[in-house]
Amino acid sequence: MSKFNGTYDFNQVIHEVDGEIMTGYGDGDVITIEYDETIWVKHVGTDGTVTRSKQNQPGATVTMNLSPQSPMYSVLMAKVEADADTGDGMFDQSVEDIGDSGEKTIMRDCFVESFPTRTYGREATEREFVIMCSEVENQD
User: Fold this and answer.
1) Is residue 27 left, alpha or beta, with left meaning phi > 0 and alpha meaning psi from -120 to 50?
2) β-sheet bridge partners, residue 33
3) pLDDT tens across 48-98, in order?
4) Contact partners, residue 27, CB within 8 Å, separation at least 6
5) How many CB atoms lie within 10 A of CB 22?
6) Cα dihedral across residues 7, 30, 56, 91: positive or negative
7) What is the domain partition of the chain in residue ranges?
8) What CATH number was assigned to the domain covering residues 10-138?
9) 119 — phi, psi (to 5°)?
10) Is 107 helix (H, G, I), strand (E, B) or coil?
11) Which own/partner contact pairs does 122-125 have at CB distance under 8 Å and 24+ positions apart?
12) DSSP of 39-85, one letter per residue?
């Protein structure tokens, strides 16, 4: 019996921001989706009875590392600047693995938290964008 589970290829991961396919990532883990809350919280009474409460917090934080030469760097910077100036920097995004896993995450009402930190030195350094999303839907 084969123990082969499938193949992962980052080139089969499609990340769209406001309808544009993202390119020009940094090295290593370049897209991280972290959910804002757990689904359930347990409450234990003094008599030992347990109640669980659904949190209903559908948001997430997406951390993305781009090369400063990425063509998408200027797209995200324009969103940050528009949001800082006029409040008009909201967008939707999605991340989909069209390979073996088939995972897809759709995020709505997103905004970039702040301008990325800029570091200059001997070599080009990545720019980390933190994106806050109000609503997340997993389609696995």
Assistant:
1) beta
2) 62
3) 999 999 988 889 999 999 998 999 999 999 999 999 999 999 999 999 999
4) 65, 126
5) 21
6) negative
7) 10-138
8) 2.30.110
9) -125, 135
10) strand
11) 124/67, 124/68, 124/69, 125/68
12) SEEEEE-TTS-EEEEE-----EEEEEEE-TT-HHHHHHHHHHHHHHH
Express each pLDDT in 106-133 by its tens digit: 999 999 999 999 888 998 899 999 999 9
99: helix, strand or coil: coil
Tokens 């939707």 -> residue: 92
Find all residues with CB under 8 Å of 37, minimum gap 6, and list them: 55, 57, 59
Q: How far apart are CA 49 and CA 33, in angstroms?
A: 34
Q: What pLDDT, on the 0 to 100 scale, is given for residue 76?
A: 94
Contact 135, 109 (CB under 8 A): yes
Is 92 within 8 Å of 106 (Cβ atoms)?
A: yes
pLDDT of amino acid 84:
94
DSSP structure class, residue 122 = S
